[in-house]
Amino acid sequence: MAWDPEDIPWMRRALAEAKRGQGSVEPNPMVGAVVVREGVEVALGHHERFGGPHAEVVALARAGELARGATLYVTLEPCCHHGKTPPCTEAILAAGIARVVVAVGDPFPKVAGGGLSALRSAGVEVEVGCEADAAQELNAPYWKRLTVGRPFVIAKWAMTLDGKTAVASGDSRWISSEASRRRVHELRGRMDAIVVGIGTVDADDPMLTARPPGPRVPVRILLDGSARLPIDSALVRTVTEAPVVVATVAGRAPADRCDRLARLGCEILTFPGDGPVPIVPLLDELGRRGMTNLLVEGGGRVVGSFLDAGEVDAAEVFLAPIVEGGDHPRTAARGVGCLRMNEAPRLEDVAIDRIGDDVHLRGRLPQPWNPKARRASRHVETP
């Protein structure tokens, strides 16, 4: 038996509940669960923090005896292995749940269909696929890390109406409004790391911290092939408040500069070669460290390097009602770019809202690792 259209509102309720864990559960996925009995909500739960009880266990504990014979809606396949917590499948069976509706299977190798099989083998009715696209999009960073081993990359910038991120002198304070900047700090507060280039440090001397603090303390990552980060910079001065990683290149970074920064508390991450810091190897290393969400704040060369590497997964853009008018290259994304406009990546699932006089635009870039993109490719007709 397939899931019923009447299941959709309950799954959407579970998805909204799952999002409450954003920034606190990573590298785990966000998961929500709802226990429903005879058309009435009995209990609601979500995975609140990494290492804490899973959404199903929270909801079932709140439901108590009312869970027996009820339906459980959950946004991700229940786990069936012992990790930091016992298997959720055991809790579901012990609670006497009669039917489980799952949005999408879990790609984690220790689960990957095993949870569904365990429930079905025990006689529980299991339906899969209700609001699958929404569930996968909610946990796109989790999917990317498991699929290709790299964090989900969000490129963020603020620009004028004529596409400038600064005036010719490099001054950019402030393009966006105070309200827009507050939203950026909220975004920072749920990231594992923030990336900028040495040019941004030279121009703005940023701290790159979330103010006020969010659920996570992001690592500040500087692309600085020559290790020329000034020792009196805001990043170095605040290294005890949030980690600083200086990504360098062996053929360009003098050992004495690296040693000096290391003595001051910065981590030096050195890549072979004598060119720019390589993007894909950097992301591979961050993925090995368990990082799930990465915010790239610029400048234009840095954003362009991630775009050229095909490693921008989403964009957060703040458009201010300002016309700068200068004849200079201070734009949001530089790099190699595209030779034809129809080759340029186009955002999908675009959302636009007003923040005072500013416009906040956000969306996803199609990527081959994304299950949604793979499904779409199967429906493309070839001539």
Account of the 3D structure:
- The chain is of the alpha/beta class and 383 residues long.
- It has 13 helices and 14 strands.
- It has helices at residues 8-18, 55-63, 88-95, 114-121, 132-138, 140-148, 178-188, 198-204, 234-237, 255-263, 279-288, 300-308, 371-378, and strands spanning 32-37, 40-46, 71-74, 99-102, 125-128, 152-159, 193-197, 219-223, 244-249, 267-271, 293-298, 314-319, 348-355, 358-364.
What order do the helices and strands come in, and which of them pair?
Layout: H1 8-18, E1 32-37, E2 40-46, H2 55-63, E3 71-74, H3 88-95, E4 99-102, H4 114-121, E5 125-128, H5 132-138, H6 140-148, E6 152-159, H7 178-188, E7 193-197, H8 198-204, E8 219-223, H9 234-237, E9 244-249, H10 255-263, E10 267-271, H11 279-288, E11 293-298, H12 300-308, E12 314-319, E13 348-355, E14 358-364, H13 371-378
Parallel strand pairs: 3-4, 4-5, 6-11, 6-12, 7-8, 7-11, 8-9, 9-10
Antiparallel strand pairs: 1-2, 1-3, 12-14, 13-14
Question: In short, what is this structure?
Answer:
The chain is α/β, with parallel strands linked by helices. Helix content is 29%, strand content 21%.
**Low-confidence segments, ≥5 residues, pLDDT <50?**
375-383
**How are the strands ordered across the major sheet?**
10-9-8-7-11-6-12-14-13
Pattern of helices and strands = HEEHEHEHEHHEHEHEHEHEHEHEEEH
Distance N terminus to C terminus? 37 Å
Which sheet architecture does the biggest sheet show? 9 strands, mixed
Q: Tell me the radius of gyration.
A: 23 Å
Q: Could you estimate the helical fraction of the residues in percent?
A: 25-40%
* Principal-axis shape: elongated
